[in-house]
Specification:
The protein has 139 residues and is an alpha+beta fold. The protein has two helices and nine strands.
């Protein structure tokens, strides 16, 4: 088991142990277990999954950093929320609005904002899908 500290600006989101942590790094998806080589990774927006003896904790983060040592992982993020707290209908609506703005291409500012919103919505939907997949596996 590897020790985890998962911290946002507001609070500690998770403090404990897990068999494995899976997260989206700048260079690709990372799977971390006890004994991993030291690593400092920039995290992309997306799900952070902590696989524990009791199941799986899934969070959505807008990005951050992860420091990996052989016995510990420290994950620092601006903000994060549990995947089961995300509102799927609201996210799908935001995704559709962002796609519409991207088609209209009125100006560069709108395009940049829509692109960011679309990326965030897609990442949040991946977090929700990961949670749903985990629930199906438990049944």
């Amino acid at each position: 088991m590897i020790n985890i500290s998962f911290i946002s600006q507001e609070k500690t989101l998770f403090e404990g142990q897990a068999k494995m942590v899976v997260m989206d790094g700048q260079e690709g998806q990372l799977g971390i277990v006890k004994g991993h080589s030291p690593l400092l990774a920039i995290l992309k927006p997306g799900p952070v999954r902590m696989i524990t003896d009791d199941g799986e904790e899934v969070f959505f983060t807008n990005g951050g950093f992860a420091e990996v040592q052989p016995e510990t992982i420290t994950i620092l993020v601006d903000s994060a929320e549990r995947a089961d707290d995300l509102d799927e209908a609201k996210i799908i609506k935001a995704k559709e609005e962002a796609e519409k703005l991207l088609k209209d291409k009125k100006d560069e500012k709108d395009f940049a904002e829509a692109s960011t919103q679309l990326s965030q919505s897609l990442s949040q939907l991946r977090a929700i899908q990961s949670l749903k997949k985990n629930i199906k596996l438990k049944k």
